[in-house]
Amino acid sequence: MKNQDHLIEEIRKKTITLEKEIWNIEYMWIKAHAGCYENELANKLAKEATRNSDICYCKIPKSEIKHQEREKSIEKWQQQWDHTTKGSATKEFFPNIKDRLKTKINLTPNFTAVVTAHGKTRSYLRQFKIIESPECPCINRTQTVDHLLYNCSKLNNKREKLIVYISKEDNWPIKKNELVNKYLKQFINFANSIDYGKL
User: Fold this and answer.
1) E strand or H helix at 182, and its extent?
2) Partner of 188 at 20 to 30 A CA spacing, among 32, 112, 138, 145?
């Protein structure tokens, strides 16, 4: 026992200079509790270290810190997104920041125009006096994203493909965020099929 305590003290002294020396460390599996003196000693030292209040276990891997910082940033971003009055059209499609970050989307001008309600609808172009009337040629209703998505008779055939696919699991009309979360591919196809020049 005295030899073991002496060896422990020697190991403690050597660990102080560990960072100053060049070490070649090899790892190998050793069966536990099989009488290997060095392994038994390592177990004893590890247990002793857990009971030593002078030892700090506050080192966190950089990867964990980056993960925690990213999570905090996403939470902060979500709070700002929840409380902003801007981007209300986009918020209907993407209410949850974390879900959006997990979803890979190949953006196209048409898809972007639909999920932002900017750029291509007649109601949007009328706001900037680019065109005179916001009315859709189909039935003289204001041409908004909602109108194109749910009502425009000029898009009936294209919309029907989307509805048929969605009807296998859900009832139409469906919420916009579910279009993105559950039927993204079909929704992108619908959005990209809209020919605004003919509307």
Assistant:
1) helix 176-182
2) 138
178 inside domain: yes
CA–CA gap between residue 62 and residue 41 (Å, rounded): 30
Residue type, 77: W
My answer on whether 139 and 193 are in the same domain is yes
Q: Is residue 47 located within the same domain as residue 94?
A: no
pLDDT digit string, tens, across residues 34-69: 778 878 887 887 777 777 666 555 666 778 778 888
The two structure tokens encoding residue 187: 């929704």
The parent domain of residue 11 ranges over 2-51
Residues 13, 109, single domain; the answer is no
Within 8 A by CB and 6+ apart from 199, the residues are 122, 136, 137, 138, 143, 148, 152, 154
**Which residue type does 70 have?**
R
Spatial distance between the Cα atoms of 85 and 96, rounded to a whole number of angstroms: 15
The tally of domains found in the chain comes to: 2
Alpha helices by DSSP H, 103-183: 109-116, 122-127, 145-150, 156-166, 176-182
pLDDT in tens, 169-195: 999 999 999 999 999 999 999 999 999
